[in-house]
Each structure stands twice: as C-alpha cells, then as structure tokens.
Amino acid sequence: MLDRYIYGTVDRISPEAPVPILAHLKTEVKVGGAGNVALNLASWGCKTSLVGLVGNDQNAGLLKSLLEKQNIGYKVIVSENRPTTVKTRVVAASHHLLRIDEESSAYLRGAEEETALREILNYVETEKPDLLIIQDYNKGLLTVNLITELIEFCVKQKIFISVDPKEENFFQYRNANLFKPNLREASIAAQKTLQQPDLEGLCNLWSEKLNINTIAITLGSQGIYLHNQDNEYHIKPERAVDVVDVCGAGDAVICSLTLGLIHGLDLEKSGSLANLTGAYVCSHSGVVAINTDEILSWLS
Predict the structure, then answer these.
(1) Is the C or the N end of the chain the one with fewer CB within 10 Å?
(2) Which pLDDT band, with edges at 50, 70 and 90, does 241 fall under?
(3) Which residue among 11, 136, 251, 266 is the active-site one?
(4) Is 251 annotated in the active site?
C-alpha cells in the first residue's frame, strides 16, 4: 500500500463548519503496509523482495517506482476489481487530523485466488529466500487457502516464517516459526482483555495448537512478551523516548526480532533489539524504516 502524508499548519477554524483549516505545506508519498517491512529489512542490509496485491491504476505504478528507488524487488498481483490501497494522513504539528483510506478488503476468490497463489509460489521458489515475513492486514490477498499452501511450501523449503497476524485469519498460521500479534489482536483472538499474567498460559496453548516455536506479543509502551518452548521473557523498554507516532513500530519489531533469531541471538537479546528498533520508530513522525547508523548511536 501507499502512505500519503499531507502536512500543513492549522491556526483557524473554518467558517463553513466546525473543522480546522489546514494551510498546506507539502505532500509526501511513501511505501506503506508490508512495503514498510521490506524497507526495514533492506535497511538492515538484506536483499529484499516484496509480494503484494495492487489494482490496475496509477498508484500501482507509483508504488513500483518507489520500490525500485530502494532497490527492493517485487512481484505485484494485479486485480482489475480493486484500487491499490492508499492511506492518506493529514498532519499538523505532528498530530494526525484525519486519515482517508482508499481500498477494497474483499478476499480474492476463484480464478484470481488461484492465479495469485501460483504466482506467489513461483516467485518464492525463484527467489529462494532465507526468511519470509507474512504481514497480514486483512486486505484480501491472504486467504485461508493461500496461507496454508504458502506455509506448507516454505516448511518444505526450510524457509524461516515470521507472521504478523490480524484478527480475520489469526489461527490459520500453523507451523510458522515466529508469531507476533500485538496485545489488542491477542485479546480479540482470546476473547478476553488480556493482562500480563495471562500470557504464559495463553502462549503455551497457542504454541501447541499452532505448532509455533516462538510467540512474541507486543505490549506498546510496556515492551514485548516473548515465549518459546524453553523460556519466557517480558522485555521492558531499556530506553525512554518521547512517543511521537506509533505507526510502523510493529514492522520494525518483527524485522529485528526475526533477524536476531535467524542470526543466532538468543530470545532475550533478540527481544531487546526489537524493543530498541520499535522505540526508534515511535520517536519519529509518520511511518519510517529504521536507520541502522542511528540505532548504533543509541547503543554507544
């Protein structure tokens, strides 16, 4: 998806209705959604490719050009029946005034679903990645059948699978290596308002039910809860930051946590790295990818 930002200043209320008048300063367009996950991986130095669903429109062309500028490979699944998802945020003095969504969330069906599955599996087979991050937004691409077939293929190919789920298909990600919902998503799936003492038992249950080795539940300002077959940790933030914007923090967290685990860091150290990158994103306005030089300067 594309993230469009309209920046301006507000110093008066409209005489036509009780709404603020934005004096426009600039407009920026960035790669958003799963594209921001790709940007984060690329920031770590990974050779990165992105697969996603777009419409047959000008915004799809803009998305491709932005990815090419970042040296990110891509395979877009084009649907004639929907627009490319665009989220437009109107911002004044780092405060969001309004968000406008242009999208269709209808799930692919029939021939479109079959074509998408075939093209995705062929692309993954060609790219031969070491890891695959599935970023689910309930926007129509990740159907139950596609999820099942994709994970089955990756397990056979010994590809590390990380998942950032959403509510719709929360329990469809059986056999993933890393499962990272946030606390709100986990609470919806558990059908109760979760507190930290609930998390160990819940993760034990989900690990067994879904055959998942590592579960990470992000807790906002309280850090991240990590659980695998051997250990559990509540990693609290080690660095206090002024939270400017939480958008995109989960993207940075799943990337750094995944990269830590596949490169041999233990669960606790991977969680600390994930907390640090999440805090970095929250200290910036808008959806941003991490800057490794700045992250390293935080550690020095």
Answers:
(1) C
(2) low
(3) 251
(4) yes
